[in-house]
Amino acid sequence: MDVQIILEGPPFPPNYHMKQSLGQFFFDSASKFKDRICQIDAKTEKSETFLTVKQKSVRVALEMQKRGITSKDVIVTCSALTLETPVPILASFYLGAKVANSDPTLSVAQTAHMLSLVSPTMIFVQESSLTLIEESLQQAKLQAQIVVFGTCDKYPTFSDFNQAKENEEMFYPASVDIHDTGLMFFSSGTTGLPKAICHSHFSFLNLAYCFCESGLKVDTTLSYTTFYWISGLMMLTSSFLKGGQRIVCTKVPEAKDVFEIIQKYKVTCLFLAPVLTYPLTDYANSGNFDTSSLHSILTGGTPISEQQMTKLYATFKHTCIVFAYGMTEVGMVGMFNPVTDKVLMTKKLTSSGKVAMGVSLKLVDVETNKTLGPNQKGEFLVKSPCMMKGYYKADCSDIFDEDGFLKTGDVGYYDQDGCLYIVERRKEMFKYLSWHIVPSAIENVLLEHPEIKEAAVFGMPINEEMGDAPAACVVLQNGSKVTVQEIADFVASKVSDREKLRGGVFIVQELPRTPSGKLKRRDVKNYVLSLNRGTNKQ
């Protein structure tokens, strides 16, 4: 009989649970922290207190209520980060409505698909993305009330909603079941069409608690991700949980600006995707900035090399670099605590840390589903009180095993110290001559080449017998004259025979990524397959 080996993260404190609705939580927290600074616009330097944000969100909630919005409705936002963007989200929570957020950088087809999943009643959209939303609604054959951040003669504006209301001081959030869906996120779509992932009020607030108790110092946070991503909502919720301030950037700032923001506002926690760490380490020697306030840098979502982790530690000498592992469906799965695990994490630079609070994890063989032990490679399965309710109006039974563990699709292992290592997405692995090929392993080799800025590895179909041969698309450094033959030879000198780039090397100007920086290998592969064979190829 197979004895299951399960890793357990630290337990929740005895008798502890977040028992509020999201609306009640944000409402009470804003009252609690009152005149503390809640958010600051990094460009304009304008700041707002928690009470200011609460007043705006109450006014918007009352206007939404006047226009028929109830707890049965779905509200969508589509905007870059501004001081206004969180307000309709909080207002929706106050009314018990479900929130789903889009991203203005997505295409009409992507946006239309996501809107079709949730059928929103009202959409708050930035002025520059109004056409995107109009065309997406038309393509999805949907109708929704549109509210514009900015100026508009065709639709009501955020300013129209944010007007003083009679008896606004008497407003109180609606009472809702904390186990009902409170917000939805869209899966990244790197392995298929996005799905609407449902989190209850209970699951998301418990996730926020775990995040804040992980050792990160969230007094002053800086993050560029929009509320389309769970990390964006997590940073917002953490600031309300701890009374910290958020530094808001409408777009991803230049490296110089990041260092200036850290120094000026004494940022304590910086969150960014691995791909966005490279400009910081490249710029590090160009200026003399004080980053001593920066307690931790949190990164994750895609692989990061040991070389880049070493550069980050060299650049931010006072800072813990936390490479975390999580997924939208379950939140945080693994990360080092920058306080208690500080020594260990500097020795295991490519580890995603230990199992997070409240999480149960098991590792299974991808072929037999047999439970595995330390230093054996398999798929991670997880269970947590922070886990999603499911996919909105869609079946999700196939992603759970018989014990209720969620199948992550992530392949990796854990070592004798219980530290997790993510090797690859299961669906992004491919076989060549019956051998599993791990794209990220070859990508890390490519990134060691001084002339290569970015790289994406994928399987190039050969035939049924041989499978897919490794191929690569690369973005070169400015002015580089390196040839595809030189790149192929470089890789061949550092990898096994089966990992050589027999499928070709293709030089491109940029690689397709999701708004948070995740590589879209399917788009890379489809692009290469559409090229004339022999063009730009080794």
Automatic annotation (TrEMBL):
InterPro entries: AMP-bd_C (IPR025110), AMP-bd_C_sf (IPR045851), AMP-binding_CS (IPR020845), AMP-dep_synth/lig_dom (IPR000873), ANL_N_sf (IPR042099)
GO CC term, one of those recorded: peroxisome
Domain AMP-binding enzyme C-terminal: 442-518
GO molecular function, one term: CoA-ligase activity
Gene name as annotated: AUGUSTUS-3.0.2_00444
Provenance organism: Tribolium castaneum
Name of the protein: Acetyl-coenzyme A synthetase-like Protein
Entries under PROSITE patterns matching the protein: AMP_BINDING
Cellular localization per UniProt: Peroxisome
